[in-house]
Amino acid sequence: MLEQSVSWIGFFICLIPIAIFFVSLVWFKLQGWLAAGLTVFASTIIAIFYNDISLARSFALFLEGFLKGMWPIAWIIIAAIFLYKLSDKSGYFAILKHSVISITPDHRIQVILIAFCFGSFLEGAIGFGGPVAITAALLVGLGLRPLYAAGLCLIANTAPVAWGAVGIPIIAMAQSVANISNADQNMISAMVGRMILPITIFVPFFLVFLMDGFKGVKETFPAVFVAAISFGVAQFISSNYIGSELPDILSAVFSLICTTLFLKIWKPKNIFRVDGSDIEQTKQINGKELLFAWVPFLILIVAIVAWQIPAFKALFAKGGILHYTNIIFSIAPGGDANIATKWNLDLIKSAGTAIFIAGLISALILLIRKKIDTKTFWSAAGETLNDMKIPVFTIGLVVAYASIAASSGQARILGQTLAQTGDAFAFFSPIIGWLGVFLTGSDTSSNLLFGSLQVEAAKVIMSSPGAAVKEGLDTLFLAANTFGGVVGKMISPQSIAIACAAVGLVGKESDLFRFTVKYSIIFVIFCGAITWIYAHFLYDWIPLV
């Protein structure tokens, strides 16, 4: 009994940094970077005085985490935003938006195409609140009520969040737990793809139901079925067999193509327009211009796929001709090898470099076609760095906390204590991710905060007598953290604030929260049930290699 009480005391001590992070964001309304800085400071104090880690070792762990946040994590985000800004400044992004809107006049199907499909494309390309802001504004422009449009876009954004900004939530988590888990980003991506498939297919029908009830679902069923199934199949295949960078982009593009072609041969008998508004006239889009509008993102897909080819990866292995581009730095304050940590600067192998090269090739094409000039190119680069400096710094601090928590033993204490819930932990695993995204507004931040906790809980459960799952549970729980997080996005204060700002409803955040919260709770209970089923009945489906 005494030993158990001591473990819970340690649990609450190690919980202090996370509590500080949440309280700073929710009650004191501090900026993310300041909340993260206070969290790192608290974790360092606990590491020194409770976990018996030296100040020099704590500093080394901080540097390791912060630098890992800069490269490869921040590098991926910066490269992705740069590519998007080039598309936007060239005018081609406006063509992309118009091409999606012009497919059908039916508002129910337009919501699927814009909020679900195009929103997923934007989530995969840029993430960080941009998709909800852009798609909600588009729907308002089509005649939907602002609150209604914002709520639908928040719900639609659940399916792609796990792979947002070219897979950064999963990539970041895999990086942060690399020292304590064998689960790599592709294994986690595959597991998320298997768990989220029912929700992915359900969400489009649910969006139509919210707009027009069962009558609307019946009238649009063929088109929505094509959109949902094509999206789900592409998401499953890409997340399981290509990697963690492209599921959003590939599934969105494939679903848009399939649904567009289907709507050439099938039309709903009744055209549904919100409040009976008139069908707006759409101008014809030049096919050549539309093709070039998609070119930057098609190049992105080719680049990411090329980076996943085994023959290409072999170039960076020991003995490969590009092995020298993987530079490993030893971080040892004062030259003490006993406290040293390592940081890998993989200059070319990083997915961020693939995205950046796609951006450079796209820029060259845009320059040749005179859609941008050199001044616009440098303007896009400057705006990207300026817009992302605070988010990137915040990510660096959050990864630094994850590094200290994992290596000092804080995450192990949290995980081992929570694992005392035994078999029930599988149900609560995604709820932890859900709470993390609710409070931080970011699946990436939630994964960085709780990834090591999930791994340590999995280790305890796998080592317990009579455990059904002896390996792979860390992959399941890491995926569950992301899985639960995607349905927390629709109720996070940051997401709601972005959505309200995009549709001119600043000050109405509580109304939007009430619209989405009940659905978010139902979804996360469903996430817990799916995780529990995998842990107890479908554990053979957990990827191990």
Distance between the termini: 40 Å
Portion in helices: over 70%
Element string (H = helix, E = strand): HHHHHHHHHHHHEEHHHHHHHH
Number of helices: 20
Can you describe this structure?
By secondary structure, the chain is an all-alpha fold. The protein has helices at 2-26, 32-49, 55-90, 92-101, 107-125, 130-141, 146-156, 164-176, 185-241, 247-265, 287-308, 310-314, 351-368, 374-408, 410-418, 425-440, 443-463, 473-488, 493-502, 509-536, and strands spanning 326-331, 341-346. Strands 1-2 form a two-stranded antiparallel sheet. The longest helix is centred in the middle third of the chain and has 57 residues, at 185-241.
Brief overview, please?
By secondary structure, the chain is an all-alpha fold. The protein has 20 helices and 2 strands.
List the helices and strands and how they pair.
Layout: H1 2-26, H2 32-49, H3 55-90, H4 92-101, H5 107-125, H6 130-141, H7 146-156, H8 164-176, H9 185-241, H10 247-265, H11 287-308, H12 310-314, E1 326-331, E2 341-346, H13 351-368, H14 374-408, H15 410-418, H16 425-440, H17 443-463, H18 473-488, H19 493-502, H20 509-536
Antiparallel strand pairs: 1-2
Helix pairs in contact: 1-2, 1-15, 2-3, 2-14, 3-8, 3-13, 3-14, 4-11, 5-6, 5-7, 5-8, 5-9, 5-10, 6-7, 6-19, 7-19, 7-20, 8-17, 9-10, 9-18, 11-13, 14-17, 15-17, 16-17, 16-18, 16-20, 17-18, 18-20
Descriptive keywords:
545 residues; mainly alpha; transmembrane helix; transmembrane
